[in-house]
């Protein structure tokens, strides 16, 4: 008892007597923290400091406030945005013939280019006072998605001027003079922009760009001015072959000290007319044979005045932060919009095709193997739509959620790839035979483009999501890093002490929450709703606590090595990502008014998200270098094993059946792929066949029953079968006509293009 009391007194003194604690706990921990603190490059530090944290911070900290998620509201279109989509966008869809664009012209037709310029498709994000539309991120995403449902080449052409590039950079950082000069011309389509960031030696590591701008004096418009001598070599630049104005990222240097004492000023962005002396627009690339303009640009010793720096000379060296903050458009709006369009297109056409395509006398949609893939398409499309809405909601709230947009970019483009793979598997011959009627092939072929741009997916997953998320979203780590970097040792020690005590309490809470939720089945976790989705909120809270607990252990033990343990950091990032995607799914269900017909799809999506999150946690524990701590983590996170096994076969069959019929949920999950009377892609054809065959389901049921009873032969042509059925009074003449007409549409829809000569 005496020994126990002494131990208690020692612990009390160590942790509750401040002077003792600071001497024997805080000071050694601070020294250790400084030792294991991962070194940050300038670009990493700027990226870390840029942008905002948003809903992902709640998910990262072990106890999400679900009411906050619901309070964000749901995205809506203004009357002006809705009118633009109902009129101009629908007109564009009627003008698109993607087979002609990709396989014959290798470009958009002139009338489509003119319409894009005239109607402001290149000015969606430019403020109204400069002649732009000033649309929301949600409207921008919806417009790009609808166009992408008919043509990726056309969608990318619209996407780029409204994504990372001169328009967005000027809007946020340009001088008043730059805005007044460039934005009205960009809004009218008189100027076509591109932005040159990547090059042969710098892709995802944009901070490694070798392109330089040397501060010097030179001639401009006959005057001797202070400026930059630029040399660059860029590739993969979308719209470069047709651009009239070039946004350029380069490393700015001042070796002569013309601007001050700093020689290496850092990454800077400038705006240069492509007709300017020395600017070279190179030849076109051929990105997976898509027809959008993409190419190269070079320049050697090109002189520009300092005033051409975006934001003026005061923004010299601030380009990397500008780029990181503006990447949300590409990562959070444009590329996810393309992926979501793939989902809507695949869902609309594959549910229709699975219903009308027959093998062994049955619609292929009745085979369980097809149902499994079809359920994935449907659930992933719901997931894509949910994530699209939640991510654009954050952007429209004027936050710059860099971690969220990285999650959206990586996971949504990967989901888009999975959706297209499943659609190709089901539609098989229909999907692979190229021609005007093939609506899957171009999207399938182009999927890797979204995977590789705006940061390659592998690096986005392994370096960015957790790398930024762990530091930015953690309630203490970033502040502890700042305290550790203080020059005043006494102030640093006092600041670190306060943070350390909070951090210890936070870690203990998450450890107890992890095992408590695991043992109780998350019974005591908070949930803002009742009904079938209540348990998903509870289970997500369990995953959140486990993520927070394991992250603290990983950062404590691995320190700076965690940055190099990319497989572990990627798995931890996967947990955060699955929690974000699951949050989006639950929020969409609430935003839709908790529609009963969506429940099977929501359950499928949530069972998948939880399965993947648990698998990522389990993978982290299994591969953790310190095996003793790995055993402790397993005990606290999975004390009775991992019971998250994903959707059941019964649930998958239910999801597949729910969209193989005209229904409100089918409309909600395919609205980004609207019906167009002038459609030339085969989408309208397969949809018309689906609608007609479905309306004849009762007639087909009569014939199948008669065959089952032996009153009709099974192996006969449909026309002969109908004649006999009419004679025997099984169906009437009107039913015969309807059935034959529907079957004609069905045959036309499942047929593919053929050519006399290729």
Characterize the structure shown.
- There is one protein chain.
- The chain has 758 residues and is an alpha+beta fold.
- It is 59% helix and 9% strand.
- It contains 29 helices and 9 strands.
- Strands 1, 2, 3, 4, 5, 6 and 7 form a 7-stranded mixed sheet that branches.
- The model has no long low-confidence stretch (mean pLDDT 91).
- This is Acyl-coenzyme A dehydrogenase.
- Residues 194-294 form the Acyl-CoA oxidase/dehydrogenase middle domain.
- Residues 471-755 form the Acyl-CoA dehydrogenase C-terminal bacterial-type domain.
- It comes from Shewanella dokdonensis.
Set down the secondary structure blueprint.
Blueprint: H1 2-16, H2 18-36, H3 42-49, H4 55-60, H5 66-71, H6 79-95, H7 98-105, H8 110-118, H9 137-148, H10 152-159, H11 166-173, H12 176-187, E1 193-196, E2 212-220, E3 223-238, E4 245-253, E5 264-273, E6 280-284, E7 294-305, H13 319-356, E8 358-359, E9 362-363, H14 368-396, H15 402-432, H16 441-452, H17 457-473, H18 477-484, H19 489-520, H20 534-558, H21 566-591, H22 599-622, H23 627-637, H24 649-658, H25 664-668, H26 683-695, H27 697-708, H28 718-727, H29 733-750
Parallel strand pairs: 1-4, 2-4
Antiparallel strand pairs: 2-3, 3-7, 4-5, 6-7, 8-9
Helix pairs in contact: 1-2, 2-19, 3-13, 6-9, 9-10, 9-13, 13-14, 13-15, 13-26, 14-15, 14-21, 14-22, 14-24, 15-16, 15-17, 17-21, 18-19, 19-20, 20-21, 20-22, 20-23, 21-22, 22-23, 22-24, 26-29, 28-29
